[in-house]
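seq:
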Amino acid sequence: MPTVFDKTSASKNVRQYATRIAPGEVGRYVLLPGDPDRVGRIAAHLEGPREIAYSREFRTVTGTYKGITVSAMSTGIGCPSASMAVEELANAGSTHFVRVGSTAALQPHIHTGDIIINTGTQRNDGTTRAYVPENYPAVADHFLTHALIEAAAALRPARGFGLHIGLNACDDAFYAETPEWNERLTRHGLLNVDMESSAIFTVATLRGLHAAMVCGVSGNLVVADYDYDAGEKGNERLVQAWEDAITIALEAIIRYEEDGSLRAVLGRA
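struct:
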């Protein structure tokens, strides 16, 4: 009888299948943008950045920020590839993940270029259904999220961005998001919609790790504030929001490292 292949066992202490990273090549802290080009933008904030691997949609860079080793890996679009990124990063030794990307607003008071920090996600994706039952919550790590909020509040007076904190939705099908669908999400009080957070939060929780999210608003789906034709690179407000989100994430890591007293009491790393 042939032995059934066990991916979990086969992925330990080896170079990873999809991302091509190996233990020792990535830090505990990883920033997770979707677009591989944005890994280069994050690398510009790091000291001594070096490209570890570039495989499929997964581009990985490792450097340091104020003395702390930080990596960045692009996840591509959607929960399937995002779940693979977190799984393989965890296999390589990473423990803390911050999604740093773009998101579309669902409430009329949120504008392109604003910053959103999400505390939990409505799981509209298919990937996490393979991991957990329908009623399982996708929740960001409390302590890492609190560090993001503190870092954003400190940076906001100088940068002037709008800041919003709350729940989002995570969808699979970009072009299936009809006006009727988006209006329903708005009625539920969700701030925004993205395509990766559900998997990142869920996989991290299942593996006993830590994940959070800070995103720049690319446009608003319920009011006329969406520069669709310009694309991401032509949208100056969004580009600045990326820079703000990256800085917030990196400064949050410093705060998280420096203030571990309550986590220590609770036995949380």
